[in-house]
Predict the 3D structure of the following.
Amino acid sequence: MMPRDDFESRLGQGLKRWAQAGEPTLDLEALVRERAGLGPAGAESVQPGKPQPSLQPGEPLLSPQAELLQPGDTRVPVPQPNPTVDPRSPRRWLRWAGGITTAAAALALALGLSFPTWAGAVAGWPLIGPVVTEIIMDDAGMKWAYEMGLMQGSVAELSEDGVTIRILGVVADSRRTTVLYQVQGAPPVPKEQGKQPIQAGQDLGFHRPTQQVEVMITAVDGQGGMSSSAPPEETPLGLVGTVSTLPLPGAKAELELQFRVDEKRFTLTVPASRAETDRYSREVAVNQSQEIDGITYTVESVTYTPVESIVRLRLEAPSFYGPIQRDPETEVLYLEADGVRYRTTGGGSGVDNVFLYAFPRVKGSSLHLVVPLEVKGVDIDALWPLQKGAVTEVLGVPVTLASYQRQNRVVQFEWESPDRDEMWGVSGIEVIDREGRAYEIGAAGSGWSGESNYVNPETNTRHRRFETELPEGVEPVAVRATRAAVPVEGPWVFELPQ
Amino acid sequence: MTYFELLRAHQGYLERIALAMLGNRADAEDAMQEAALAGYQHFDQLRGGEAAFGAWLRRILIRQCRRILDGRRRTFPVDDLAAYIPDLAPGPDVEATATWEMVARLSDHLRPVVVLRYMLDMSQQEIAEELAIPVGTVKSRLGKALALLRKMGEAQRREAR
């Protein structure tokens, strides 16, 4: 092991002192007693532990599948286990598809800084600096485009009513069209805390801060379309963020962007070109479709760049409209070449049911895209009174309303159900008032929602959480779910021409 | 000592580990709760007596953290991002606080590797096993993280002058 230098030693000592200074903030005993079905402390002699096939000291943590890509295996370029996103949630891909990396990289170019100068400059930016460097290094396409000098600087600026918007750069290639922007003069973001333990009479901690800037690419050469964006980052340069849409249909296009800053709206037009990046790419049409149990996947094309294989995939399936945790070893699509599996190196950018997945640039006698499993949404009508412990059966699986919390108009529901393949969570949430009127809550495009959906393998329990804001004046007495997720076993297998 | 007495004795430190791994208090609390419950349910599997309790529960906690990190990468709702800003919890002195503030700004890819390496003194092989990633990935992430932390450290020093 390499000896640590002075910086590393101070880093370790600082972190250890910081950790040792931690004080308990949770009443874990009460929480464990509640979830383990015990009475309050002192009510009985606690004899924890029961024989369950779970953690054993020394138990290997790597799953058998994880052995597939072993370090040091010279056959394999060891792709990083990059994030895989839920293709049914187009708004969710950007953050993990390298959006801010793109932004940061383009920022350097837009500012006219060479890399060493730029690296020095961003070192003084406490927030954006680390993000910038990591994104360039982690995104093979970005790194390559940056090194080749193919990122497009495109500066436009608009100042009005005390707000200044700058378009700092555009990155257009066979995987995405991303615009980097800067907004100055926006109202400050309220600093919100995450979920806190709830005490009687105490405010609930879950809520969503107001997003004071929203950006959309509303048209490409006058044609309307969808775009994906994540909340911008606060930096010393103001708010910096990205908004993305699919690759340009032609070599060049005009992008129309709409900004909402607080209550003001602004429109800007910027040129974008993928002509330079396309010189290094080769797109091969595939147009193969496969349908399994109502879910159709179509591989439209595969584009080979010097560093990536980019698969353009269309998914037609009844949507679930909710998040689903997947096992990256067995439930996420992969590229297979001569018996070796490669995971995605970049998330799929999903707009209008089209997703672009990037894989390492691999060559082999046969190249296949494999989708092992997909999830579809089915209609249900499941109702729970707003009582903790209320149970309703969904597709044969008992689903318990484990908790219901509310502060003013903000509500949070948590359901628990046994981990079974018949049903992977509920969505399409409505609340019912005393008169029996139903109100859909947290629907896409109608406001904010926060949610999670995962399985705790220790308990084989699925946990589904959904929080959002009630419509004005609505007093719910029950909650209803109208959709359920149902897994569909594949695989969908496509041979990719080279 | 009972399970809960042992838990209380280690809780503050473990909460900080969870916060360091996950970067925000909300997820750290979820991980702590799950780890505490799993520890309770498997307490009879603890080997080595009370002296081994801290390391044993820490391992359970790290598994919970990894699970949350994996799930977050796949299903993290954009709408929640602002609620998951790094939690800048204070340390016992200025240097410890500043160290955490730098580490807190690292991404989900880099921060856990730094925490396991420098806070918990794990080897690269152990980190690879805990996070189920290749050792080569651990090395590259540590390299990137250290480069970023050094830059941040330099920036902090410049500001302090």
Remarks:
- Chain A touches chain B through 105 residues (CB under 8 Å).
- The longest strand of chain A covers residues 476-495.
- Chain A is about 15% helix and 40% strand.
- Helices of chain A lie at 6-20, 28-35, 99-110, 115-123, 128-138, 140-147, 275-278.
